[in-house]
Every structure is written in structure tokens, then in C-alpha cells.
Amino acid sequence: MVAADSEGPRDPGVRMFRRERSIPLRGSAAALGNNLCVLHLPVCNLTHFGVVHGPSAQLLSVAPEGVPLAQRQLHAKEGPGLSSPLITQVHWCALPFRVLLVLTSHRGIQMYESDGSVMVYWHALDSRDASPDSTQAVFARGIASCGHFICVGMWSGRVLVFDIPLKGPNIVLSEELAAHPASVTDIASEPAQEPDCMADVVTADDSGLLCVWWSGPEFKLLTRIPGFGVPCNSVQLWKGIVAAGYGNGQVRLYEASTGALHVQINAHARAVCALDLAPGVGKLLSAAEDTFVHIWKLSKSRESGCTEVEHCHGECVPDTQLCGARFCDPSGSSFAVTGYDLTEILRFSSE
What is the dihedral of CA 179, 182, 184, 186, to 10 degrees? Predict the structure, then answer.
């Protein structure tokens, strides 16, 4: 295991990224972790951004120079006579054959066509599933796609697995995974890279527990990585390595198949709010409530097979509680950031 501390870029005189034109929002991003989703469409030369604020999610289509070309507001589905529920997350799920936009709230799970124009599926949350003596709020949170499945986390610790058809609304709840003792916080996936490494989904919860799964015809639990009393707020999966961001500011890298800890990075002074990966180049982005965004280069040693980490860039957004950060393209050459009480999406691109 290697421990690393981060206090900024290794060479303060070199800036790898520069500030670009910001994207205006109608309201600030809610103070929720992972509160930014990005869908890059190179064919159309467009990038879609999604941000949650209270009972609505704002979707923006943006040209390369940062000019918003279209905006759409989505609201969580309501029952008769009920107040608007708060949205907890919005996320684009890029399946091999279609892209769906998934929205979670305190009342249910909604799935839309990628532009948010047509709802194709609605799954209501049943508060009767909660313990009668529990004061815990009912909500869904944590979204990821894997193969022809979309996984959504629940307040109860369960993970719902939906089987998605090639087209149309005939979506089926195919399985419920029960391995977490606390509310699910985030889910990540990646196609299995090697025949002997089946791990392709990882789920995290408020207790810090990580569960590594093989999606297969039926999901199989491969590894449980115990927590240490700190919530895991965000996870990513890269070449059999689990990257996990915690409430104490640490980023930890684990071997997915065994749960062995490879690297512990004291990356931030406050809770990590988002992680993202550019898998083709092995770049890991971390953002936290300490106003900092860091970019790390992941690699595997040819000699030992161990994971190695190099700090590439640090960016401070002064006086801002960050709540979301994502790469804007697969190469990791640009990224975007949201913050609580910040009425814009900040964009940065490599020089």
C-alpha cells in the first residue's frame, strides 16, 4: 500500500487546464453529491449537462464554445394532491444500444429518452417498505448502467436492477440486490477488461461498505470491502481497480477481485463529493467540499502489477461548496464543476 498527500500540483508554475466560458443555470445546484452528469455527443459536436435543484432537474445542450443551445426542465412525478418531491440525482445511462436519462427522487425512479422529451418508465417507491419505527427518509440514489441493465440504489440499502429492451418502454425490474446495511450512495460500472476479472459493477453506501459485483445473467456478489466508519460518497471502476471517495477527504484504490487496498490518497481536507474517470487514459478526477478539484493519473506497474498514482492538476474554486464534477470528453481533456449557490457550470480545458 502507498499513501499519498495532496497539496496541489507538483509544479505550481505549470497550469494544465484553463478556465473556459461558464454555462449559466437558472438556479444553483443542490447541495448533493455527484450533482452533475455529462453526455458527450461527438457526432453532433454537442455536450449535454444535467444538474439537480430541488424538485427539478435542468438539462442543457451546449456547443463547443460554451453557448447553451437548448434547455429543458424535468420534474419528479407527483401523485394526486402531493407536493413536488425533491430530486436526488440525474444521470445519463449509455447502454450499448440506446441512451436513457434516469432521474431519482424521494418518490420514485423515472427513465426518459436521452433528451428528456419522453418518459419511458416510472417506478414508484413504496414507503411501506421502510421499517415502521424508522425515521429514515425514503429515496433512490446511485445510478449506473451495465450491459443491458440499469442499476439504481435505494435508501434501504437494496439495489434495483432493471432489464432494458432494445427499444420501447417494456422495462422490467429483474432483480433486487440486498448486500448493503445502509443507504446506497453511488454505483459505478465498467465492462470487464480481462476474462479472469469479472468485476464490472461496484456499489457504495453510507457506512463506507463497497460491494463488487459481476452482472452476468444474474448478479453475483464477488467482494465486500469493509468500511471504516466514514461514508463513501462516490465510486468509479477502472481495469479491475475500485476508486472510492470518502467523507474524510480520502480517495482509496482497491483491487476489485480481492478487496486489497493498493493506494490511500489524502486528497482533500473535507468530504469528497464526486469522482469521475476518463478510462481510456486512466485519469481520475476528484472534487470535494474543500473547494478543490484534483486530477490524478492512474497506471499499473508492469513489474509488480500494483496501481500507481501521479498527481496531475489541482484547481481551486474559491468560497464554493462543490457538489459535482465530471470530465466532458472521453480523453479527459476538459472537465466541468458545479457548486452550491453557484448559478453556473464552470468549465476547464487543457492548454
Answer: -100
Closest of 288, 284, 291 to residue 273, by C-alpha? 288
- Residue 150: which of 183, 191, 189 has the closest Cα? 189
How much is the pLDDT for 305? Answer: 73
**Alpha carbons 126 and 183: distance in angstroms, whole number:** 15
Residue in the structure block whose three cell numbers are 418531491 = 85
Query: Which set of grid coordinates corresponds to residue 326?
Result: 465530471
CB 199 within 8 A of CB 223: yes
Measured CA to CA, the distance from residue 348 to residue 70 in angstroms comes to: 21
The average pLDDT across 42-58 equals 91
pTM of the model: 0.91
Neighbours of 293 (CB within 10 A): 24
Tell me which residue has cell 463513501: 232
CB atoms within 10 A of CB 350: 14
